[in-house]
Each structure stands twice: as C-alpha cells, then as structure tokens.
Design a protein that fits this description.
Layout: E1 5-10, H1 15-26, E2 31-37, H2 42-52, E3 56-59, H3 62-71, E4 78-81, H4 83-91, E5 97-100, H5 108-116, E6 120-123, H6 126-143, E7 146-149, H7 152-160, H8 172-175, E8 178-185, H9 195-198, H10 203-207, H11 216-224, H12 226-239, E9 246-250, E10 256-262, E11 267-271, H13 277-285, H14 299-302, H15 317-327, H16 331-347, H17 355-366, H18 375-398
Parallel strand pairs: 1-2, 1-5, 2-3, 3-4, 5-6, 6-7, 8-9
Antiparallel strand pairs: 8-10, 10-11
This protein binds nicotinamide-adenine-dinucleotide and magnesium ion.
The site of nicotinamide-adenine-dinucleotide has 24 residues, from helix 1 and helix 6.
Length: about 400
C-alpha cells in the first residue's frame, strides 16, 4: 500500500458522509481527511472538523462561514465559501480521492471538477451522472479518472464483473459474456401498495425506509421507485449498456445488492448486510479490501431471500426514467430536476405522493429535449425545468386528492 491518501469529502454532514467518516476513523494511517463540505448543519460540520482536522471546510455562504469559524477558531482548518470552493477542493492537487456525496444537482459541478482533474472518484451523487451522462463519461475517459460507484447496487455490479479496471465501453460487457445486469430494489416502504392505497401517504411514512437509513431525498426516491429509475440510468452510463440489458428485480430483504447474469447460465451476486460502509470501503481501497466495521452476514438469521417483479403501474417513475434515457439529450436532466422540485414540495406537504410522478411526466411532456453536449445546455435545462415545475406546483396542489 502507498503512503496515506488525502480525501476530499463533499457532503460530509450527510448520511453517506457519516458512513465515510466512520471508515476513515478506522484507518487513520491509510487515509487523511483533506477537505470537507457541509450545507446547513454547521454544528455537525464543526464536530467533524474537531475530530478530523481537515485542511479545508467548505460552506455555502458568509453567514455559515462566520458560524463555523466561531466554533473552530482554535483549529488550523481554513473555511472556504461558495460553489467555486467546492470545485477547488475537488480538483486540488493534494486530493487523491474525492467522495461525491452531495445530494442532487448541486453535486454536479464539483464531481465534474474531480473528474477533469483525473482523481479517483467515489460516486454516490447519482443525480450528477443522470444529468450529464455522456459529458461526464467522456471526461472520465479523457482525464483517466478512476470512477468507482458506491451506490450499493452499482458497486455490487462492479464487484460481480470480471476484473477489468474502471473503464467500460459498449463491448466490455458483451465480450465478458455478460447477458444481463440484475438491478435489485427493496421496493421501499410502500411495496405492495395499490394505486388507491398510495393516495395520501405522508412524508413521514415515505422516509421510513424498511432496510436503509438514508437522507430524506433518496428515501422519498426509494418510495416512488424513482431511485431505481435514476439507478437504471446510472448503470447505463457506468457500464456502457442500454436499458434492455438491465432487469429490475425487487428484493425486499436488501441482502443481494445486485447481480450479473452470464451467457453460460451463471449468475454472480454480491451479498451483505445493508450498510453503505461496505461499498464505500470497497471504493476507497479498491482493489484491496479493508475492514469497514460491518458485521458478517448471518445467512441463518436472514433465512429467506425473496424476489418479485416491480409494479410499474403503481410506481410509474421507473418507466419514466427508462423513457428519459431512451429519449436521450437533456431528457434525463429534465426528469431529475422535475423530481427534485416535486420531492421538495412533497416533503413540505404541498403536493401528494402520487403527484411526484405526475410532475415528472408533465415536465417530460412539456419541455423540449435539447442536445446535452455542453455543461451550459445541461445547466440551462435544469434551471428552465425548475422554473416551469415550480409554477406547475400551484396547479398540482389545487388538485390534490385527499386520502379516504
Ligand atoms: P443527505 O441528505 O444525508 O446528505 C446530503 C449532503 O449534501 C449533506 O452533507 C448536505 O449538507 C449536502 N448538500 C445538500 N444540499 C446541498 C447544496 N445545495 N449544495 C452543497 N451541498 C449540499 O443525503 P445522502 O443520503 O447522504 O445522499 C447523498 C447522495 O448519495 C445522494 O445523491 C444519494 O442519492 C446518494 N446515495 C445515498 C445513499 C444512502 O444510503 N444514503 C445510497 C446510495 C446513494
Ligand atoms: Mg442504491
């Protein structure tokens, strides 16, 4: 193993951020926290700074900076402000590994900065790849960055493929004898609900995921199955395949994290307790394996593994995502922005759960798809979609159906 590696952790105060910090604390000789970012919870960010003493901490504005500086005045950590600073700590020559764990479109520019600088990137922020897939992957190829997925399913797929480095082209999987990717989904808290039963479910119910403890946005995405839709798009870009090479398999226990099916009839699966420290540790140490603090899987306790088809009628987001990927261009960016606006409105109790896919469909039907060949075009589409969707919110909230 080489000398200690410097880590930039974008989104340190979040759920993935916390899991990453836990692993770093287990391997102080191996990893050093170089830079962190946080958006709202300055007290939590101050605690992280006290424990890990990073060189830089990035916050969104001057008032957050003032707040943080007052809490860490005795430390050498330098507090930086704004989106530019996120990019600076992602591309800094000192940073060996960048963990992209900001939620949503806000994570795109710093993740791309890390890609352009040729870093090892541990990608949690799937929205970045969904928005800018072609551009992102072209940059990865150009810079030679090592893109390692830490979304548990994609990490599992990566582990089930033959060892061939981190770059995939459209021949990589067929020439390895891969027949299909089996992308598992827990089904979320509303698995088995009918269309009628979904009317009026609350944000509290939606964020109560049965197996995983995660941030609010991804928890709602898991409940609508949009998370699986975004992951389908993510897998298409990461492994250079089309949607028809991917089958979504609902697996309520979340023990099998995804599978790869081969021409000879073999199916390789990666199993483990549902704990994000496993894929994060894998990404940090790849191709080595390190302790992640995760308990061994007790198969006698698990006892049963179940598999079923996804219900794309009650949960239309999966089909919408497939459709967006096939449409191409800025369609996935439109879908992503519409979903972010809708999820925020649902969490604020302004729209119903079943109106989240309604908003996404509205956006795909009403906003013209452009070429996604420049960052400017993608960001302009993101902004335009948010504006249109925000004005559509009023219409949706007037037409809310109350639960019986
Ligand atoms: P979270 O809400 O717990 O944390 C999000 C982090 O992003 C926080 O540090 C927050 O301060 C920061 N942030 C939020 N808005 C920001 C903005 N506008 N600008 C800069 N920073 C901002 O989310 P999470 O569950 O840790 O998820 C993070 C990402 O990882 C998401 O893209 C999610 O889809 C993906 N992911 C999460 C899990 C999981 O188990 N939590 C699993 C797979 C993938
Ligand atoms: Mg996942």
């Amino acid at each position: 193993m080489s000398a200690s590696q410097n880590i930039t952790l974008l989104g340190a105060t979040g759920s993935i951020g916390g899991s990453t910090l836990d692993i770093l604390s287990r391997h102080p000789d191996r990893y050093r926290l170089f830079a962190v970012s946080g958006y709202r919870r300055m007290k939590a960010l101050a605690e992280i700074c006290h424990t890990f003493q990073p060189v830089y901490a990035v916050v969104p504005d001057d008032s957050a900076a003032e707040h943080l500086r007052s809490q860490i005045s005795e430390l050498k950590t330098e507090v930086l402000v704004g989106e530019d600073a996120l990019e600076r700590v992602a591309e800094a020559p000192e940073a060996d590994i960048v963990v992209a764990a900001i939620v949503g479109a806000a994570g795109l520019l710093p993740a791309l900065a890390a890609v352009k600088a040729g870093k090892r990137i541990l990608l949690a922020n799937k929205e970045a790849l969904v928005m800018s897939g072609q551009l992102f992957m072209d940059q990865v190829k150009r810079s030679g960055a090592e893109l390692l997925p830490i979304d548990s399913e994609h990490n599992a797929i990566f582990q089930c493929l033959p060892a061939q480095g981190t770059h995939f082209d459209d021949q990589s999987l067929p020439s390895s004898g891969v027949r299909q990717i089996l992308l598992t989904a827990s089904g979320g808290p509303f698995r088995g609900f009918s269309v009628d039963q979904l009317v009026g479910v609350t944000p509290e119910q939606a964020v109560a995921h049965p197996n995983w403890s995660m941030g609010q946005k991804i928890s709602v995405d898991s409940a609508t199955l949009m998370n699986k839709g975004l992951e389908l798009i993510e897998a298409c870009w990461l492994f250079s395949v089309q949607p028809d090479a991917i089958q979504v398999v609902v697996h309520p226990e979340s023990i099998v994290h995804s599978m790869v099916s081969y021409n000879d009839g073999s199916v390789m699966a990666q199993l483990g307790n549902p704990d994000m420290r496993t894929p994060i540790a894998y990404g940090l140490a790849w191709p080595e394996r390190i302790d992640a603090g995760v308990k061994s899987l007790d198969l006698f306790q698990v006892a049963q593994l179940n598999f079923e088809q996804a219900d794309e009628v009650a949960f239309p987001c999966l089909a919408l995502a497939r459709q967006a990927f096939i449409l191409g261009g800025t369609a996935p960016a439109i879908l992503n922005a519409a979903n972010e606006v809708a999820v925020e409105a649902f969490l604020a109790n302004h729209i119903n759960f079943e109106q989240i896919p309604e908003m996404c469909r509205y956006a795909l039907d009403h906003i013209s798809v452009e070429n996604a060949d420049s960052l400017e075009a993608i960001l302009a589409c993101d902004q335009k979609t948010r504006t249109i969707c925000r004005s559509h919110l009023e219409h949706l909230s007037m037409h809310r159906v109350k639960a019986q």
